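We modelled the chain as a single entity of 148 amino acids. Its sequence is:
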Amino acid sequence: MSPKTGDLVRSNSKEQVENGYATWDFRGQEQQRQLIDWFKQLLWRPRPRTLLNKEQQKAVRKHLRQYRRGFDEEDAALESNVSAELIQSRNRAVNEWNAWRAKVKNDTPSKKKQSDKGEDKEKVVDLIYEVIEQTEDVIGLVYRGFGV
């Protein structure tokens, strides 16, 4: 969290140890702790509250709704662009899928057509198993259960 009236500047160190920074609120409660390798220091540079004079500040407050409306329109335009791109990519994926399905359907003959012709009927295969050699080993087991 950066202060509202200043800039944060971070510099790095040549040593890699468990360095980092922490931020506190005005009551002294820790808000965030961040451990960063190669970290050296974090400086806060205060700056003036505003670069506008009193008249310019009044003009900004007066036209704030117009500014907000313009920013909201820009945000909506960006969001609709993202939505349009997402819809286009989904439609493209669906079209590719449908084209692939149609290609596979045309390339493979259907089983129904073959069965109508009587060519490929069900084949029955009899498997015969024969025991060639059988050995039996006796293993001595000892069971030690509860109460035995």
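As a brief sanity check on the tokenised model: The CA atoms of residues 16 and 146 lie 59 Å apart. The first strand starts at residue 6 and ends at 12.
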